[in-house]
Amino acid sequence: MDALVVIDVQNDFCEGGALAVSGGGDVVQGINALMDAFPVVVLTQDWHPTAHSSFASQHPGHAPFTAIPMPYGPQTLWPDHCVQGTPGASFHPRLRLDADLILRKGQRREVDSYSAFFENDRTTPTGLGGYLRERGVGALTLVGLATDYCVSYSALDARRLGFRVTVREDLTRAIDLGGSLAAARAAWAEAGIGHAAVM
Questions:
Q1: Does this model's pTM top 0.85?
Q2: Looking at the annotation, which residues are catalytic?
């Protein structure tokens, strides 16, 4: 069985948001149209507490988009975004929400969570892998925001867990911070992840 995993199509990642990805809102119509082709649809939602450790505002002297060492490895610092219960954390208003599962991630203050499957410590699972296995899912198509961070981390973790994975790049948008998009594509190739502009 195939599943569509829609990553973080939220207001703060779209035009006018606190961490807007260029063209973020442009993916919504295509994602909505794609949902009916899949028997299982999962939406993920970045859901940070106030004063999350990944926010640059919590590290005086450090600017957004720089990196600092954390106990689990290097952490890029971000503008405050997707704070629980705020309009920025809400899904894009035009995104269809009739999904089988909505998974919230990044809820622990001390560790970020790009991936839909594991927090950034690379060991703490979100439970999504088990849910998909119990539903009989073997192949995943990933769409959403942002290509080179949450989509890519999710794709790589899904592949590591044994799922067949395709990233629909036409239905993602990238931050491309310091060559991060090229690095993501190289990692996909090494992991055997397909990526295509059309399905």
A1: yes
A2: 8, 105, 150
